[in-house]
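In response to a reviewer's request, we include the raw inputs and outputs for one of the modeled complexes. The two entities were modeled together in a single run.
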Amino acid sequence: MTTTLFFLVLLLGLTGFALSWQKAGLIAGDNPSGLHSRPTYHGLYSFLCIVLSGWAILILLTIIGSAYINTTLLRDIRSALPDAPLIEHQLVLSDAKAIAQSRIASRTDELRQVIATDFGKFSTARFWITIVLTLGVALGVGYRCLTQITLDWRARNRSEKIIRLILVAMAAIAVLTTLGIILSLIFETFGFFQKIGWRLDKFLFGTNWSPLSGVHSGEMDPDRVGAIPLFAGTFLITLIAMLVAVPIGLFAAIYLSDFAGPKTRSVVKPMLEVLAGIPTVVYGFFAAITVAPFFRTTGEAFGIQIASESALAAGVVMGIMIIPFISSLSDDVINAVPQSLRDGSYGLGATKAETIRQVVLPAALPGIVSAVLLGVSRAVGETMIVVMAAGQGANLTANPLEAVTTVTVQIVMLITGDTEASTAAGPAFSLGFTLFCLTLLMNIIAQRIVRRYRELYD
Amino acid sequence: MNDMRIEKRAIQMDDVKFRASDVQVYYGNNHAIKDVNVEIRDKTVTAFIGPSGCGKSTFLRCLNRMNDTIDICRITGEILLDEEDIYHPKVDPVQLRAKVGMVFQKPNPFPKSIYDNVAYGPRIHGLAKNKAALDEIVEKSLRRGAIWDEVKDRLDEPGTSLSGGQQQRLCIARAIATSPEVLLMDEPCSALDPIATAQVEELIDELKQNYSVVIVTHSMQQAARVSQKTAFFHLGNLVEFGETGQIFTNPTDPRTESYITGRIG
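The model returned the following structure tokens for the whole complex.
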């Protein structure tokens, strides 16, 4: 019903557009420049007024209607069953709704039948009220818009104002969603800190991580929520990934921008970017099934013990994943270094290598730094590869040949584990919040660096 | 200009620095330079004039093989520097460019300090044995670039922080620092205001005591002010080459006359 009305209002809006457009044209007659606004704007203004007011009434009535029906019916149920708990009341209501819509209910007793009849009556009333009010408002607004059209009516300014409001609303939605996510992170984190008795030092600097072992009444043991092994693992894997990705990515970018001919470039660059299109889950099982066993057997051949889930395998594969980010962004910034700087250097008798090392790279450095930091953010937040290839045990070690775990892995395990969500969410949210703060800090520092050392070329 | 200098100039007029014969340049299928024959003398300012797209910058860039960096560019003919073919396979363009410095149309200081900008050439060519020697080269070059007094207290600041005219003089100082024998200037004043232009022109006049200077310019007044020899290019051809005074007062070719009187170009 609501969907049909939604489209009916849209249809009314389009009709309003056509009528207003036509009327504006008729008023102008032989002198189209006499109109303040072009006929299209008159049409647009009517369309916007009709559609926005119609939809607003429709949404409002739907929300108010169901809230009113639910509270009224629940009050009736409560007076009939004063001793039963709230959950029982809600069960009766949902059964009654099911009966009214002839679906299967858990029980069909007398009370449920009565409530079902009431629900049916209410629904019919709401149906007609919604239709009449929505179409009435849309038609009324449309009529008013149509009668308002004169030569001087400023339809363009008014519709532009409405459109600007729509744009502001969309931007606000994006910002408010972000704010909402951050706020929920903060609240859950506070809840968790309360559970561990505000022992922040234990969380930030403790080395023992097994938050859910021995949890019964929701109280957490501060001695078991030390996040250090997780962050150490995250940074170890990030470090390995960057050791792989930065040299390969950067040198590939230098080759592509200054040495490769246009033909090679047109083949190699898209090939590199294909790497960025591979889903991380594919990298994950590539790491777990191909790379980790390869490292293990190679290690055995040299007499080195490498665990089957190791920081090395996860880090190397993650590095491969990050190569295209670094090479592609660096290639762009190296290309953006003006040819005049290269010419200036060649004109002084510098070789290509001297020019790249001493002129091109310093000029491109801010961009390269931001590319690398973007890569670090990707590595820190990456989940699938480490879930499959890095291990689950919170093991504090700097040895890349052993299994380590990361912040993201532990969040996945907490949320997908068997423990009920309200208990597991606490540690998960606080890990997420800490990770968020770290990456935010890193991005701010990166932006500072880039802004400080950026040279502007036109 | 006093008489003594004119006399001195007349004596040195005989030293040919560059001798170009039958030079052809192609950009892909476009024949950009046709049959250019020219002799550029030492300790002289030679001006290349002509309308846009006539090939004067292209020819200038042949003289230090800057066109090598453009893939589709092909050059035939012979260009001799001190009677040696610069396009001979044995010649390394890197060493050639150390001898034939270049200043570009737009000031292009490197994203380094003023000091490092000037020290860049001497460093890559190993011209200074120690820090003191390098300091001396930098100071001497900045003095000859007529910018020392303006920057001596802020050698550590980035070269890009200077004004446009200062940047261009810094680029000239940078080119001088490698002690080249020839200085090529590709419209060095086109991005500068009249005051900065006057400073650069004064500088060019001083430079010709030690170097052979070749300058491409759009301004005929500038060519008349700074050069002793002028070459007029038109549609890829070297139309006329001679004494600056003669070119501007008594051109032999009707095209030259049309250009300098403002009828074409």
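As requested, we also summarize the result in words. Strands of chain B lie at 16-27, 30-41, 45-49, 73-81, 84-85, 100-103, 182-186, 212-216, 229-234, 237-243. The longest strand of chain B covers residues 16-27.
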